[in-house]
Amino acid sequence: MRVPLVIAGAAVVLAAAAATVAGVRWTAAGEPVSVAAPPGASTVLPEGAYETVVDNRAAEVSVDLRNDRGGPEVDTYAMPPATDWEQVRSAVAGQLDGWRQVGNCADTGERRVRCSWSEPTRWWPRTVQIVFLRPALPGDDQSYEWPDNTFLVIGSARGTGLS
């Protein structure tokens, strides 16, 4: 008679411990991680023909990162013209110590480069995504649009789902 009660008691204790761990993780995953902009970034964007392109990329990041826990935090920055992809990628990755890079983040040489990271946790991993936008090369069909501006979009999502 005592053995079934001991087993039932142990099961209740284990279930309570699991629920506590899950509750703590659920709460921690409920807020997007704060990602600081790289050095030289400015929230004051210059006026120009780029506005639609940058706004569209920010909207894409927002849609990509939206989940059942709510909308992400998405910020757009003007970067110094000499900023390169590796500076931006390493500045963001350096803040996400231990996070798993999702996909290939290599510089393709294109005007738009993307990279994402996922929190290394099994339950409700948070996600960070960046999009780096640089001007077209001189002489390119679209080089007149925004020849001297480089931009960065940073999005951070609440944790959702199981990985």
Task: Report what the structure shows.
With 163 residues, this protein is an alpha+beta fold. Helices cover 31% and strands 20% of the residues. The chain contains 3 helices and 5 strands, in the order ααβαββββ. It has helices at 2-28, 51-65, 85-93; strands spanning 73-79, 100-102, 112-118, 127-133, 150-157. A hairpin with an 8-residue loop joins strand 3 (112-118) and strand 4 (127-133).
Topology:
Blueprint: H1 2-28, H2 51-65, E1 73-79, H3 85-93, E2 100-102, E3 112-118, E4 127-133, E5 150-157
Antiparallel strand pairs: 1-5, 2-3, 3-4, 4-5
Low-confidence stretches: none
Number of helices: 3
For the biggest β-sheet, the strand order reads 1-5-4-3-2
Choose one word for the global shape: elongated
Beta content comes to 15-25%
Find the structural class using helix and strand composition: alpha+beta
SSE pattern, N- to C-terminal: HHEHEEEE
Summarize this entry quickly.
By secondary structure, this protein is of the alpha+beta class. The protein contains 3 helices and 5 strands; from the N terminus they run H-H-E-H-E-E-E-E.
Which keywords apply here?
elongated; 163 residues; 3 helices; 31% helix; alpha+beta
